[in-house]
Amino acid sequence: MKPIRLTREQSRDQTRQRLFDAALTTFMNKGFGVTSVEDIAAAAGYSRGAFYSNFGSKSELLLELLRRDHDATMGRMRSIFEDGEATRQDMEARVLQYYSEIYRENKCFLLWAEAKLHASRDAAFREQFNAFMRELRQTTTDYISAFSERAGTPLPMPAEQLSLGLIALCDGVQFFYSSDPQAVPADFAEAVLAGFFRRVVFGAS
C-alpha cells in the first residue's frame, strides 16, 4: 500500500504533537529544570533545529502543554455544571465523582507543580502562568455560586474562598498521594475530597 503523503500543515502538526508528547514525558520523568531542548528533540526523534522551528523556548512549550490541559479541565467542568436539565442529585453525583477522582486522573499534576516552581523564578513566565490560575479560580468560583443557587443550598463562606480552598485541597491530596500512596491510599484520598464537598459545599451532615 502506497504511504499517504502528508501536506505541509499536516507534517507540521505531526511534528508539534510528537514534540508535545516527548516534552510531557521528559518533564514528568526528569523535571522541567534539568530537561534540555536537546532532550526533548531527541526523545521526539528530531533535531534541535526542528524544536526551534516550532517553539521559541522550552518555557513556551511548557505553556502550550499547560494550555492544552487547562482547556481540557475547563471542558470537563462545563460538562458537569452547564447541563440545564440536571437535577440536584445528578449534579451532586457528578461533582463528587469528578473531585473524588481528580487526584489520580490528573496526569499533568506534576507538570503544574513544575510550572509553579518555574513561575516563582521567571517573571515573564509567571505572568502567563498566573492567567491560567486566575481563570481556574474564577471559573470554579462561578460554578460553586451557580450550584448553590440551583440547589438552594447557602454557602458557609464566600464562593471565592471556597474556590481557593478546594483547589488547594485537591493539590494537597495529589501531593500526598503521588509521593506516599501507601500512607494515603486511594479510598482515603477519595473520602477526604468527597467529604469536603458533602459537608462544606452541599451542606450535608
TrEMBL record:
<feature type="DNA-binding region" description="H-T-H motif">
    <location>
        <begin position="36"/>
        <end position="55"/>
    </location>
</feature>
<dbReference type="InterPro" id="IPR036271">
    <property type="entry name" value="Tet_transcr_reg_TetR-rel_C_sf"/>
</dbReference>
<dbReference type="InterPro" id="IPR039538">
    <property type="entry name" value="BetI_C"/>
</dbReference>
<dbReference type="InterPro" id="IPR001647">
    <property type="entry name" value="HTH_TetR"/>
</dbReference>
<keyword id="KW-0238">DNA-binding</keyword>
<keyword id="KW-0678">Repressor</keyword>
<dbReference type="InterPro" id="IPR009057">
    <property type="entry name" value="Homeodomain-like_sf"/>
</dbReference>
<dbReference type="InterPro" id="IPR050109">
    <property type="entry name" value="HTH-type_TetR-like_transc_reg"/>
</dbReference>
<feature type="domain" description="HTH tetR-type">
    <location>
        <begin position="13"/>
        <end position="73"/>
    </location>
</feature>
<dbReference type="GO" id="GO:0003700">
    <property type="term" value="F:DNA-binding transcription factor activity"/>
</dbReference>
<dbReference type="Pfam" id="PF13977">
    <property type="entry name" value="TetR_C_6"/>
</dbReference>
<dbReference type="Pfam" id="PF00440">
    <property type="entry name" value="TetR_N"/>
</dbReference>
<protein>
    <submittedName>
        <fullName>TetR family regulatory protein</fullName>
    </submittedName>
</protein>
<keyword id="KW-0804">Transcription</keyword>
<keyword id="KW-0805">Transcription regulation</keyword>
<dbReference type="GO" id="GO:0000976">
    <property type="term" value="F:transcription cis-regulatory region binding"/>
</dbReference>
